[in-house]
Design a protein that fits this description.
The protein is built from 21 helices and two strands. Helices cover 73% and strands 3% of the residues.
């Protein structure tokens, strides 16, 4: 699955005059490669034994550096499989969308190569089962995303790219220190072995220190308040494909790392830091919603909404219960689908109106661009958590988990978190309805005319995300049946 984009990215180093001489052939090549990768990902779904979802399957386990016990160990279980498919799908849709709607600035060959390298890092993060290998893949995504923002971003791209790389590198340093602290004291780099032991052989102090370092490191990527400040600038300035992958996949790497590594390998540290994690999560929920109400730029508003939505994911993890962690994993997928769709639509709005400023766009989009407005309405309603759509289940289950947290945690504190999180959900509805009232309803701006109808490539990028949002919302067992057993196995040591 990773070899296909790797070989394709290397092939793009061949001089243009000899290989894919024009943008049309280059676009088709990107679609073909990412489509083949998606097919391999879907074949993994068909080969996966769902009756034993807690076991790492389809594994590759080879010696890498025997002197320090380092192995090239890959595999997938019920926790990582949905994220693998989501990553492959969003990358394919981004390259499909880019074929007809390339980013401003040209150099499509380099852009395609960077997206393929980005896909390697994202997929590798979700299938790595060795701590050092996980960290390598976790870092691989930084340079391609930095370059995508810097070379194809908006007017403030240089500052946004610099802030992105500085924050994420700082987080990576803390993360590496925390992982190595746990690994050295446990005597293994194997993630499955660390999860099986549930902290056995690692002292309480080491677990608390290791978990705190990893919480901060993963929290930068999540993003967790107050480590989120790189996110709005990066989203606002990034091209459409960059924003989709940043929101749809890169943010999930942080919360996935907490579930996969931090909590099972340092359960004592997780209990000690759970109250702080829950507090930061609910602050992020309310802060993100209030910040959205203050925004006048469409992409920036969606970016701040991610802070709030990922706050629900972090709250679910903080409860240290199967219900809460399943909510977090469900919320990861729902946010990837819905916010990916929102950023695709924001890009289409900007292409047609020449701006993302809500005041300049004005109202009346339902009359000027009825199909685009309809998709935007659907995505907004899904994001505010309407029952029957994907966004509802992750938030509702996270609040339910906060009502009944792990027995070792303070129930009054988490019930308070639940109440504050519920307020955040109400504010989420407020800012999305405000968005729709400003640009889809009301009087159109003076002199406004009908805009270009969506292209086939735009529909091709939007419709799968709409369909999956409906499927997962109406039938949540689609995901919960996959994640429940591995969650119980990973967190069995937490009581």
């Amino acid at each position: 699955m990773m070899a296909i984009p790797a070989c394709a990215a290397l092939a793009l180093l061949v001089p243009k005059r000899r290989f894919l001489p024009d943008d049309a052939s280059l676009g088709r090549f990107g679609i073909l490669v990412s489509g083949a990768t998606l097919l391999v990902g879907l074949s993994a779904v068909t080969a996966f034994d769902f009756s034993d979802a807690s076991r790492a399957q389809l594994a590759v386990n080879r010696t890498w550096e025997p002197s320090i016990g380092l192995r090239f160990h890959l595999g997938v279980d019920g926790i990582s499989l949905p994220l693998v498919v989501l990553t492959a799908l969003l990358t394919f849709l981004c390259l499909l969308y880019t074929h007809r709607h390339p980013p401003a600035g040209g150099r499509l060959r380099l852009f395609t190569a960077l997206l393929l390298v980005l896909e390697i890092g994202m997929l590798g993060t979700f299938v790595a089962l060795d701590l050092i290998l996980f960290f390598v893949f976790f870092e691989v995504v930084l340079i391609p995303m930095f370059a995508v923002i810097l070379l194809w971003g908006g007017p403030g791209r240089r500052a946004a790219a610099t802030k992105f790389i500085l924050y994420t590198l700082l987080g990576s340093g803390l993360l590496l220190a925390g992982m190595l602290l746990i690994a050295v004291n446990a005597g293994t780099l194997d993630m499955t072995e660390l999860a099986r032991r549930h902290g056995a052989g690692v002292s309480h102090g080491v677990q608390v220190t290791g978990f705190l370092l990893m919480m901060l490191g993963f929290g930068v990527k999540a993003p967790m308040w107050p480590l989120h400040t790189w996110l709005p600038d990066a989203h606002t300035e990034a091209p459409t494909a960059g924003s989709v992958l940043l929101a749809g996949v890169l943010l999930k790497m942080g919360t996935y790392g907490l579930v996969r590594i931090a909590v099972p390998s340092a359960p004592d540290g997780a209990r000690s830091c759970a109250l702080a994690l829950g507090l930061l999560a609910v602050i992020g929920i309310v802060y993100g919603a209030l910040a959205c109400l203050a925004q006048t730029d469409l992409k920036r508003m969606i970016a701040y909404s991610s802070v709030g939505h990922m706050g629900f994911v972090l709250l679910g993890i903080a409860t240290l219960t199967p219900v809460g962690v399943n909510a977090a994993l469900f919320g990861n997928i729902a946010h990837g689908l819905i916010t990916g769709l929102l950023f695709f639509l924001a890009g289409s709005v900007k292409d047609r109106y020449g701006t993302g400023d809500l005041e300049r766009i004005g109202g009346g989009m339902l009359g000027a661009a009825p199909r685009l407005a309809s998709f935007l309405t659907f995505a907004s309603v899904a994001s505010l958590g309407l029952p029957g759509l994907a966004g509802f289940w992750g938030e509702m289950l996270a609040l339910l988990g906060a009502y009944r947290p792990d027995a070792g945690l303070s129930r009054p504190a988490f019930v308070t978190f639940m109440a504050v999180g519920g307020l955040g959900a109400v504010l989420t509805a407020a800012y999305f309805l405000r968005l729709l009232s400003k640009i889809t309803h009301g009087r159109p701006r003076e002199g406004a005319a009908a805009v270009v109808a969506p292209s086939v490539y735009e529909y091709a990028a939007w419709v799968p995300l709409v369909a999956l949002t409906l499927l997962v919302g109406v039938w949540p067992k689609t995901l919960l049946a996959v994640t429940s057993d591995p969650v119980r196995a990973l967190f069995g040591g937490l009581g």
